[in-house]
Amino acid sequence: MTLPQQHAPVPGPETTGEAKADRQIERRELGRLLQGLASEMNLLGHDFAASQGLHATDVQALLAVMRGAGPGGAGTGTAGTEPAARIGTGPPAEAAAVTPGLLREELGITSGAVTAVLDRLERAGHVHRSRDSADRRQVRVHYNPGASRIATAWFTPVAERTDIVRADFTPAELQVVARFLGRMTEELAALRQERRTAPEAGPDAAG
Fold first, then answer.
1. What is the distance of C-alpha 21 from the center of its chain?
2. Largest CA-CA distance found in the chain, in angstroms, rounded
3. DSSP the chain
């Protein structure tokens, strides 16, 4: 006797609706977790700023200068996603620096505000400014390597906590997490740039 062929049940409206609801819950939960992570990172940055007598914007500027210096102090990056060539074409000491203009673009603040930020960072011993040897009108901002001891003392516990969490995951899982966070960072950076460069909507934009 031939048994009737078994077919997978066709999902009905109720099943489809349940799956969609589950995806919405997962989306909200993921968003909540990302917001929580971002909030804790921001609070750590605020606490570091307060411990140094700095503003939150100062810490963002300091991180931008450190990224501009690149690993080991080499000028391998800039204050954001700008090409390394934007940093400078002079000697290595000058190449491993960013300009106030790049910081203004990165932070989205005025030139006067950038000057105030750099004044505070310089007084705190985190950075110093110099004139470009080829163009004395050009100012470059350098990260003081000795200042890294301050940041290291503050953020080493963060790295230690990160290692504790990493130990709970397999290398394959960490690769997925790294890919997700990398893509999220790229998309948010692109969104930030789009919003900064888009023309402001006028009063009649809504129709």
1. 32
2. 95
3. -PPPPP-PPPP-HHHHHHHHHHHHHHHHHHHHHHHHHHHHHHHHHHHHHHHTT--HHHHHHHHHHHHHH-GGG-----SSSS-GGGT-SS-HHHHT-B-HHHHHHHHT--HHHHHHHHHHHHHTTSEEEEE-SS-TT-EEEEE-GGGHHHHHHHHHHHHHHHHHHHTTS-HHHHHHHHHHHHHHHHHHHHHHHHHHHSPPP-TTTT-
Rounded to whole angstroms, the Cα distance separating 105 from 128 reads 19
Residue 202 corresponds to which amino acid?
A: G
Residue 125 φ/ψ region, left for φ over 0, alpha for ψ in the -120 to 50 degree band, beta for the rest: left
Q: Give the residue-averaged pLDDT of 138-162.
A: 85
Q: What is the pLDDT of residues 36-81, one digit of tens each?
A: 999 998 898 889 888 888 898 998 898 888 887 654 443 333 333 3
- Please calculate the CA angle 38-58-139 and round it to the nearest 5 degrees: 130
Measured between alpha carbons, how far is 34 from 26 in angstroms, rounded to an integer?
12
Number of Cβ within a 10 Å radius of residue 198: 8
Q: Using the structure block, give the residue that is written with the tokens 């004044």.
A: 119
| List of residues 6+ apart from 152 with CB closer than 8 A | none
